[in-house]
């Protein structure tokens, strides 16, 4: 899918309110970080902007597929889907940046709470918006059960990816730059699950959190649609 591929204008009009809302929300996070830097003359939370950029990559990929005037063929969707899945954990990973919340001089505690929560919220919204796009794509091609199966597995793999990033400090680039260490650490956790109980505790709990949240967001959309139709 090249950058020159024409856009579907009806799809763009349909998606424009979401893009504007996400843009405003991301702008708020940027402003909060920028104001903190000006107040403290420190770069304490600037790394959150990089995390947001990584979180936006899967959203950009899935949105590009849906905004294309012509749906890409399966031979293109498979590699795009693989790249999407590789970067997808970066979006919900932002929730774990709450680990960095602690009282610091220069700004009120509540300000840092609002700043980190803003970034965490954007991470979740980028994740869910992107997953909805991919979920729809799979459902249209393979059916309802396959669509939900895909979403469930993607969130499970994402939860495991969040563990790898937060506790083992791997990132999406390590699959290219450090593949052997990454593969070894993953295999060890499957071969010795009881010696790595934290791995599976974090993965299962975060998986449940993400899946319930995703289902709730989808149901809210359906409720709103039903109310509008009744009105």
Automatic annotation (TrEMBL):
InterPro entries for this protein: DUF1361
Keyword vocabulary terms for this entry: Membrane, Transmembrane, Transmembrane helix
Transmembrane segments: 44-69, 76-95, 107-130, 142-164, 197-217
Pfam families assigned to the protein according to its UniProt record, in alphabetical order: DUF1361
Presence of keyword Transmembrane: yes
Name the record gives this protein: DUF1361 domain-containing protein
Source organism of this protein record: Hymenobacter setariae
